Amino acid sequence: MEKEFEKLIKTLEKFEGIKIVDVSDEFNWIHFKSTSDENLALINNEVDHVNEQYPCNLFVMANKAKNSDVTYQIVVESDKKQNAIVMLNKKLENILTNNGDSKKAKFKELGLPDLSLVTIRQMAAELKARTGLTFALVWIENTERDNIAIEGSGNPTQLVGLLTRGSHMAIEWADKNIKFFKPKDEE
User: Fold this and answer.
1) In the beta sheet, which residues pair with residue 151?
2) What residue ranges do the domains of the chain occupy?
3) 165 Rama sector, left if φ>0, alpha if ψ -120 to 50, beta otherwise
4) pLDDT tens across the length of the chain (187 residues)
């Protein structure tokens, strides 16, 4: 556990404008100063994300003796402190490797965002780049039966099985959900 905590401290020190004041590996808190509001906001954002899963917080510590001296403290309160520390360190390292660009870091961590802005070919290219994934995408443009396209990757036997199973599922869905009615003039 101490090793992971030390890694988190070293990661924090890499942020520009962050200076570690004091640490406690026994109680899992890191006390630091920040001269960069941008990096402080990035760190606060990542602590908030980790806090959704494991209780940890970023506190503002104001020194009454020196009104201008504001410091901050990250406190990990969880029973699963190890997991919280590892997760926070991973998120902060990810931001550092992307030169402080949190959007780019999130993109690398979570993959493609809103797929409504992505074309089928872009989705297929992204899926083909992944290993151990068998997929098939079938689509039609302008409802012309000669204008059907397919993209896929994987073992051909698995692809044919996947397409067959997909067709079977579509037929089952259609049987349950599509209602056929005879027009009144044909009766």
Assistant:
1) 137
2) 2-110, 115-178
3) alpha
4) 468 888 888 988 888 888 898 888 788 888 898 888 888 888 888 888 888 888 888 888 876 665 567 888 898 886 778 888 888 888 888 888 776 555 555 555 555 555 555 677 778 888 888 888 888 888 877 766 677 788 888 888 999 999 999 999 989 988 888 877 777 776 5
Whole-structure pTM value = 0.51
CB burial of 51-85 (b: ≥16 within 10 Å; e: otherwise) equals beebebebeeeeeeeeeeeebbbbbbebeebbebb
Task: Return the CATH class of domain 2-110.
Answer: alpha beta
Q: Could you tell me which of 14, 21, 27 has the C-alpha nearest to residue 63?
A: 21
**Tokens 């550092």 identify what position?**
96
With vertex at residue 27, the alpha carbon angle to CA 25 and CA 33, rounded to the nearest 5 degrees, is 70
3-state DSSP assignment of residue 31? strand
Half-sphere exposure of 63 (CA within 13 A, CB side): 11
